[in-house]
Design brief:
heterodimer; A: alpha+beta; 6-stranded antiparallel barrel; 4 helices; globular; disordered C terminus; B: about 180 residues; mainly alpha; elongated
Chain lengths: ~270, ~180
């Protein structure tokens, strides 16, 4: 147990048993899926027409936004080229479906229906239509485990959209609101602020919505403000998710001069990078 | 067939269980554990595999013991993506406790066995809780202890169903 919790030595064993268990898990899910399929088949024509109308309206609204986005992107590209900044998110994206939510009462996890067969790797970010859902933590041949941002101590680097203040979003486990830790009491952050990923970790592409600030308690007796937030996305609300492949990492900074480093590190190796 | 859900009378001596039947019930229990549910059902759902292992450890200790329980626990760990060895440890401890208490347990009628089963299941739940605390997990709330209690309530029903194939086909009072 120690070997698993701390060092993850037993992933190989876990994979073998998981592959053997996969048919059983699928078999158990089949009745539910069959019922859903039959239900969808008998959905009334009326409902479908309504949905079609709604989608058409949504499409119209979004066309405008899309056009504006196109214009903005060109403008942005030009500006970036001007500043010689790296391009934004350049990874791949895979649509996946939630198979079931995790049964472990201690952790916040969902399982999705694609794994290493779709080139998903641990560490990939997972989003839905509303924002960041979590991160892929384990990959099996045809499913993967996604740890939600609300899982205890799951961290997402974020930025306040309004003021640009950077922080780190920490999950607190089931039933407790996530929080922003280690924020100075005078940080420019207000209830209602939207938090987006800052992208400085290289895992989450920048600009994805994560959460909304609920409450900011500035107690002068404490070193840090207590800031609780509500996550925007939720796998309980959407069954289709998008797995974002990792963007290519920025080039490594040049290695410091060897001789100088050994002198400073007293021969015990280089420090930092 | 009216007595499908009635327990074996004390004078009925149960036949030896078929190992394939034991395997089948363990497999069905595993499947029951894997059914995807959420919300209240997830909180209240007992660990069926644990109950079935406990039953067979009490009734057929020659077939199901600590080793089998441990192996099934490893399977359950993978299925639930929990810490490797968490279920294995709790099932193994349960199997040992069952081995220890089985002679006493069998003397009680089923409804009186239920509270004892509840105690064993709660012990295992507490053990899992301890293991996860060491790993740094948060407390999942008092509802965490609901499942073992539901499991204990299901114990009489499960026992009756599982002992059904072992009941003698002829009346013991027949000549």
């Amino acid at each position: 147990m120690f070997a698993d919790t701390r060092f993850r030595y037993l992933e190989g064993v876990r994979h073998v048993v998981a592959v053997a268990l996969y048919p059983v898990q699928r078999a158990v899910q089949l009745p539910g899926e069959a019922i859903a399929w039959v239900g969808a088949y008998f959905a009334s024509k009326r409902a479908l027409t309504d949905e079609n109308d709604a989608l058409h309206k949504a499409l119209l609204v979004q066309t405008e936004v899309a056009l504006a986005a196109e214009r903005l992107r060109t403008e942005n590209d030009n500006l970036r080229a001007l500043l010689e900044l790296s391009r934004g998110y350049g990874g791949s994206a895979k649509a996946v479906e939630v198979l079931y939510t995790g049964r472990d009462p201690f952790a916040q996890k969902v399982f999705v229906n694609r794994g290493s067969d779709a080139d998903i790797k641990p560490g990939y970010a997972v989003i839905d239509a509303l924002g960041v859902v979590g991160q892929v933590t384990r990959v099996f041949p045809s499913m993967s485990e996604v740890t939600l941002v609300t899982d205890k101590d799951q961290a997402v680097p974020v930025q306040v959209e309004r003021s640009g203040v950077r922080s780190v979003f920490f999950g607190s486990g089931a039933g407790r609101p996530p929080e922003l830790r280690f924020m100075a009491p005078n940080a420019d952050i207000r209830p209602g602020d939207r938090l987006v990923t800052s992208g400085i970790d290289g895992t989450y592409p920048p600009g994805l919505a994560v959460a909304r600030v609920d409450e900011v308690k500035r107690d002068p007796g404490l070193v840090f403000a207590k800031i609780t937030v509500t996550p925007l996305a939720g796998p309980d609300r959407s069954t289709h998710l998008l797995v974002l492949g990792a963007a290519p990492p920025p080039p490594r900074p040049e290695e410091p001069n060897d001789a100088a480093a050994t002198k400073k590190g007293r021969g015990k190796g280089r420090r930092g990078g | 067939m009216a007595d499908l859900f009635s327990a074996a009378r004390p004078e009925e001596i149960l036949k030896q269980a078929n190992p394939w039947f034991i395997l089948l019930t363990c497999f069905l229990a595993l499947m029951a554990n894997l059914v995807p549910v959420s919300g209240l059902a997830l909180i209240l759902r007992p660990d069926f595999l644990m109950l079935v292992i406990l039953y067979w450890c009490i009734q057929e200790p020659r077939y199901v013991g600590v080793g089998v329980a441990w192996a099934l626990g490893v399977v359950m760990d993978v299925a639930d993506a929990t810490v490797f060895g968490q279920h294995a440890l709790s099932y193994a401890v349960l199997a040992y406790a069952a081995e220890y208490f089985r002679r006493r347990m069998l003397r009680f009628p089923l409804w009186q066995q239920a509270p004892q089963v509840a105690l064993l299941l709660l012990l295992c739940a507490a053990l899992v809780l301890l293991v996860r605390f060491v790993g740094g997990a948060p407390f999942p709330g008092a509802s965490y202890f609901a499942a073992p209690l539901v499991g204990a309530l299901l114990w009489p029903l499960l026992s009756v169903l599982l002992q059904r194939p072992q009941r003698p086909t002829r009346s013991p009072n027949e000549l």
